[in-house]
Amino acid sequence: MSQDRAPAADQAEFNAWFPSPYSLTQYVPSKTDFAGADYPNAYKGGKWKILLIGTQERYLKMADGKFFSTGNHPVELLLPLLHLDAAGFDVDVATLSGDPVKFEVWAFPQEDDAIKKIHKKYEDKLRSPLNLEQLWSKDGGFSSSTPYIGVFIPGGHGVLSGVPFSKTVGDVLRWAHANDRYYITLCHGRQH
Fold it and tell me: What is the pTM of this model?
């Protein structure tokens, strides 16, 4: 186990940092405690879907001007996605701009086959998500007939960069509330 507590430099950006090697050994498990997703009465109706709003932000500017190399936390996005998928729901993935969902890859549980499998299944949607702004404005906003039964905003520090300040995300959440839809948030995803 590394005792190096100094943040590790991100070679892709000036003054940007990853968690320290010590932090990664202490707080990033190689496997989740996932014990299965058995839904004997999984949804089979085909109408309802989930809208996942991910972050396209790679860096979070800190108070000291440095950048934290971030994105969505892989477990906070992929484990709930695994359950939603197993429960029978199709999931549309969107970001504010339509740019790829960014992950805190340093937190990816490399020995977790279930997480790797759901990531692979949704990789195309995560790499080429819908543009939330366009999705919302396509028909002048969502209506009671919009097929999203729920809106899922996963955590990870990257969510703090744009999602809480987006008028469109606020509009989507107000629509969900007004139309008795579910909203699911985890950790930093609930900052809106």
Answer: 0.94
Catalytic residue among 187, 188, 189, 192: 187
Concatenated DSSP letters for 94-150?
A: EESSSPPPPB-GGG--TT-HHHHHHHHHHHHHHHS-EEHHHHHHTTTS--TT--EEE
What are the structure tokens assigned to 115, written together? 């997480």
Query: Is residue 59 a contact partner of residue 51, using CB atoms and an 8 Å limit?
Result: no
Q: Give yes or no: 85 in active site.
A: no
Task: Give percent helix, percent strand, percent coil of the chain, each to the nearest 5.
Answer: 35, 20, 45
The pLDDT tens digits for 66-115 are 999 999 999 999 999 999 999 999 999 999 999 999 999 999 999 999 99
Alpha-carbon distance of 45 to 41, in angstroms, equals 11
